[in-house]
Structure formats: C-alpha cells, structure tokens
Amino acid sequence: MTSPFTLGWEEWVAFPDLGLPAIKAKVDTGARTSALHASVIEPFGPANKPQVRFLIQPNPDDLSLEFTCSAPIVDRRQVTSSNGETELRYVIATHIKLGERSWPIEVTLTNRENMAYRMLFGRTSIAEDMVVDPNRSFAQPELSFDLYKQLPKRKPVRRPLRIALLTKEPENYSCKRLIEAGEARGHVVEPIDTSRCYMKIGARVSEIHYDGEVLPRFDAVIPRIGPSITSYGLAVLRQFANTGAYCLNEPNAIAASRDKLLAHQMLARERIGMPTTAFANSPKDTKDLISLVGGAPVILKLLQSSQGKGVVLADSRKAAESLVDAFRGLDAHFLLQEFVAEAAGRDTRCFVVGNKVISAIQRQAAEGEFRSNLHRGGTAEAVKLSKEERAVARRAAQTIGLNIAGVDILRTSDGPKVLEVNSSPGLEGIETATSKDIAGQIIQHLEGKVRPLSREAFV
C-alpha cells in the first residue's frame, strides 16, 4: 500500500506560476481557505478578464525583499478570519509546489504583515491523499530564502502584464494589432493619449496624471509617439520609466532616431554604410555643400520628418540651390544627401526586434515618385536578406539603441546603405506582405524583458 503524502504543521512551498521559489507556510486544517500575503493589491484589466497585481515580501525578517506578482482573478469573496473579522478578498488560482508534488489551488490575497507566516495553508488546498501530522515540522524538503538570489539568472516567469500603449491614434492598424496581440497572450494593453498626460515630478514621487486622475503603475510601455509631439512625448515616456515601467524603446534612443543628423553621425562613428550626407549652417556654403554629396540630383531632408514628409529631390544644381535657400529662409534645419540612382526608387525595410531581424520587405515607389514609403503609394513584397544586410540592420538598431526598429537600407553595388532607423515602424505593410505575426513577436520580446520578480517601488 502506498504511504500517504505527509505534511507537517509548517512547510516550505513554492508558487511556480507566480515565480516565487520559497514561502514558509503554516498548515491549518481549521482554516477552510488558503491565504497568501499581499499588499498594494491592484485589480486591472477588462471586466470579462480581470487581473490582479500585488506586492509580496516573502521573508518576514527581510522586508527589503519585495516582489511584484500578478494573476487572473477567479473570484472575490467574503472570508472570516480566526479573530472573527470578515474581509472581502480577491481569489486567484495558481499551482503550488511542495516537495516533488505540484497541484492547482485557490488562494485568497490578504495583508499578513503582522503574521509569522506569509501563507496560511487551508484544508481545501490539501489533496485527498495527504495527511497532516501536527507533531511534525517540515515533513517535506526544506527550502531557503536564498533561492531568491538566483532569480536574476532564471528564465522570466510569464505573467499577465499591464501595458500602456502611448499613442494619439489607437484605431490605426499598428496600435490595434499590438492591443490584439497583447490580449491574445493574456495581457491588458491600455491605449493612452500622450498629449493628455501631465506629470507631478518630485524627489519622493513620480506621478502621471490623466483626465484628472493619477494613472496606476504599468509594467511596460509601448511608445508610438507621433513626430509632432516628440519632445513632450519623450518627457511623458521618461516619467513612465521613473515609475518603474519597462520602456520598449528608451526615450534617448527615440530622440536619436528622430534627429536625422544625430542618427547619421552615430552610424558614421560605427562605420555603417550610408549615402554621403552633408550639413551646414552658413548660406555661403551652399555650392560646396551640394558638391560634397556628388552634385545634383540631390536629396534634401528636414531633420525632423517621417513617412517621406519633408524629403525633397532636386534634380539639378540650380534646383538644389533654390531649395536650400528656401529651406534656410524658413529657418528649417535640414541635411543634404547623395541620391542613389541605382536604387531605382526601391528600398528595403528590415524589421528588428531585440537583436534579431525577424522580417523584411522591399518597397517600390509609385510611378513618378522617388520616395518608396507606403504612405506615398508605394508597394511592398517580402524579400530575403543577405547575411551582410542582416548584420547592417542589427548594428544600426543597436547603434541608435532601439529594441524595436525599422531599418531602411538601399541595395547598392557597394553593399547595403542605411537610409533611416525608425523607432515606431508601422506594422500593416510588413504583416500584409509577409503574413507574419510581427505584433505577436513584439509582445513576446516585451515579456522576456519585464521581469515578473523585479524589485519595484510602490509609492
């Protein structure tokens, strides 16, 4: 006959789904419901798929050891404690591991900061083949809080995330796909209008306000900041970072990508191929400036532009000089760039996620147009990249500091040349042409970066 699985009156347990490797629990058959210590309990998500996030300090003797967990809510019920007090608690379902055994249980969340044990192990969590020996302590193998020291080296535990999508256009294709992909993987993705955010900045508190209320803390932020509000959008993104949220692309990297002159200088420093580029301030340098890029035809680009806006082709030296004078008359900051005729109105968009080029398309400009942007009527088709092209795209994204990037390159006889590194690449063209779930891969990458057990500040 098989011996019963024995529990002592106290045991070490783990919660793999929550990423908690060691909790000391009191086994109490007099209590019907199991309870787990939790503070700063915060529900989030839609009504049909509610989630809860909470802070836990697993070691009552070391309150500096604190972690964030989150899980789906399965119920909310009234629980009466041993002292007769009744409390409305959130209930989550999760797996508990004790020795070699692992099984699902329901556990309520409550503040047990004045209790000696961070978990109360109630009788409904005890399997039928288990017996409790009230005279034994730690009948199963003992664990240690030292296990938490190993967490930075462990693979992140997947958990529901609360993600802010910074955008003024939540209904465009890219934003809708990111929301859809996040929700498909169990996360809550909330679109937030960047321009409606305002901030309280102080030594002890970093708050973001929105429509008269303080925004809750988010696990991560996906920035889709429009060029027209770059400066303010980056200030908002920095504030999110100050609250402990992981930024999919960091503010400084986005700023560098938006400043075409700075981006080209950074790429040049790393000896990454690009069309010859020139920049000057004095109108006396106009003729020499045009000569530096090989003469006409020449491309003029505003330093702050996107989707082909502010990019002009001058097909003769006289036209180039006139355009330079016109731009300067408007106090516009611009650069001149070599026109690569052999590209024939084609460029290649390489989509970089993390340190990997996950997909690429070749874009062809519409007839009579030199800009291949899809917003300008260009067309796109999937394309296979060479090893050199992949390496250049990766290096370009790394040089600017972007985790997610659309790197535009020209295929030339001298090898690939980087035109631009985009920090908010659109998804519609590349997903349509390649039939790949780019949005899903972005969310997957984000999951690996937001550690479920990172120490975070709750103010």
UniProtKB/TrEMBL annotation:
Amino-acid positions noted as binding ATP in the UniProt annotation, renumbered to this chain: 301, 338-339, 347, 371-373
Binding-site residues, Mg(2+) 2: 420, 422
Keyword Manganese: yes
Cofactor note: Binds 2 magnesium or manganese ions per subunit.
Residues the record lists as binding Mg(2+) 1: 408, 420
Top-level enzyme category: ligase
Descriptive protein name: Probable alpha-L-glutamate ligase
Species assigned in the record: Ponticaulis profundi
Gene name of the record: rimK
